[in-house]
Amino acid sequence: MKTITFLAVTIFLIAIAPRAADAIVNPESFKRGPEQIVIKVTNVTVKKLSMATIVHLLAEVVSVKRSATGLKPGDAILIRYQRHPATTTRHMDEMMQRGEKGWAGQQPFYQPHPPQIGDVISAFLRRLEGGHGRVYRPAAYQYSFEKAQ
Predict the structure, then answer these.
(1) What is the 3-state secondary structure (H, E, C) of the chain?
(2) Domain-by-domain residue ranges, the chain?
(3) How many CB atoms are located within 10 Å of the residue 35 CB?
(4) Which of 31, 47, 101, 110 to pair with 54, CA 20 to 30 A apart?
(5) pLDDT tens readout for residues 92-119
(6) Which residue from 27, 61, 28 is spatially nearest to 42, judged by alpha carbons?
């Protein structure tokens, strides 16, 4: 009897595990990072390479909701990250095809599009590991920058 129960549980877990791996993640779960601030973008540098795009943003902190690194309004920060447009496009195409077939499943994660100079946005950030001073990176993938309210 124990063998039959064990076998039934094993089959059930094998059937369910792939679906759990494809679960859609709630974007709000990414926004629990250490830095939640409102910034005004003062400079944007975008360098396109063959396989990636490097983005550097200079910004002024307008207000702070949460800061593990002690950011205050008026502080200047640098945000650095890389985007991989070819990979992102391929993943998004695959997800769109799945959606058209009625499949539920995972969503692609990608770094945000660079904002424009003068944009005032809510930013969800993390201090860049190994970075000196006030250097950060997006903490919530494509949800890292939102229009400030």
Answers:
(1) CHHHHHHHHHHHHHHHHHHHHCCCCCHHHHHHCCEEEEEEEEEEEEEECCCCEEEEEEEEEEEEEEECCCCCCCCEEEEEEEECHHHHHHHHHHHHHHHHCCCCCCCCCCCCCCCCCCCEEEEEEEECCCCCCCEEEECCHHHCEEECC
(2) 25-147
(3) 22
(4) 31
(5) 666 666 656 655 556 667 788 899 999 9
(6) 61
Q: Which CATH architecture has domain 25-147?
A: Beta Barrel (2.40)
14-26: pLDDT as tens digits: 555 444 444 455 6
Q: Which amino acid is at 38?
A: V
Residue 21: C-alpha distances to residues 14, 56, 107, 147 (Å): 12, 33, 11, 31
Q: Which residue has the tokens 């969503």?
A: 107
Write the burial class of residue 106 (CB in 10 Å: 0-12 exposed, 13-18 middle, 19+ buried).
Answer: middle
Residue where the block lists tokens 């499943």? 105
Both tokens of residue 85?
A: 């447009």
